[in-house]
Input
Amino acid sequence: MKNNSIVKGALATTLLWTAADSFAPVYHSTQQQASVTSLSSSILADDVIRGTTSNDPLSTVADMNDEDIAAMMRNDNPPLPGTIMKMLPKDTFQVDTATSLMYAGLDVAAVVGSMSFLYAVVQSDFYNGLPIAGQALTVAPLQILTGFAMWCTWCIGHDAGHGTVSKSTKFGKGINRIVGEITHSMICLTPFVPWALSHKKHHLNHNHLEKDFSHQWYIREEAGDLHPLIKASYYIRMVFFPFLYFIYLFTGIPDGGHVLFYGRMWEGESMKDKLDGALSVAVSVATAGTLWHNMGTSDFAVVCMAPWTVMGFWLFMVTYLQHHSDDGKVYTDDTFTFEKGAFETVDRDYGEGVNALSHHMMDGHVIHHLFFTKVPHYRLHAATQALQKGMKERGQDHLYKQIDTPDFTQEIIKQYYNNWFYINEENIVRK
Output
């Protein structure tokens, strides 16, 4: 009780100081920080003010219980990017073109090699002499391997979409575009420019209830008010599960079409941008058409589309789990800030080998969302370790989300089945 009284006295002093000082023009900004007393130096002045419901700061503090005091003393406002940058290694933002191209070359070679071997098996007399069930069992491990190699290559194209394959003043833009077209438009049959457009909008609005891209949020308590087609898609959600990436690209749910240009992602975009995107679509269509024509429908499905479906599974699994957790929050126009949205994303540990082969797409996601145009994939791991240390030193490690997920295939099925795209009202920060 004595310690509680001391804390209350300090908080009362803080409130009086804050109310008397000239914070009125600035404390409405959710990003303004103020150092008040040695006891409460980590408290944001605007949070203190917004937490009072009385005109009398002293009476407000007197009414607080231990839980109220603990919440006030804990700084739940994430640090700004400039502060975070000081926590990170000096080379975090160094993009080395040669290193980037080395990783791109290795992943492309892995796809070409595994897919070529798969095609050779499909063309062999041994394979063709097997019954259908035997054929399926023979190629399944190779399809899974090739699909995983495609997923790893997709991660390289992801860097290209953010401009972090190369920052060369003279050639960087061209290098990123070429790498993106090869890894995404050709190998992953994902039109590079349209994908990069919607993905950028996702990063600018991450974990916003209405404005987020790639991640649709439906309020669970309002499920009865949803459109009948959306309700129906919930009830048959597991039927669509293997094909969600195909649905995302081709039907335009929820962002708009990445092959046929319509929907919200194209609102306000110029004809020049659309024509630029059409080039990526042409590359994907030409690649798929050429392979289909030369292989035939059956072999194309077995050698190309089955691994592509595996890649799509990896992509949806990683993306979904990065943005969904039991305590994850989403924000509205009144509460959203870029930093708050970034810290609601989740770093997940799939295991050291999978993390590394996937270019730390899973376990370096928070850093990526904080600096999505600045940090290449080969800097994410060290930067994430530094972020964890820095947040702990600031007493804000509770803001950083990290979940060990070694059983990732089971976890995605469980989470998607139980939660789909629902968010609970209690997880929406409205004020």
Observations:
- The chain has a mean pLDDT of 87.
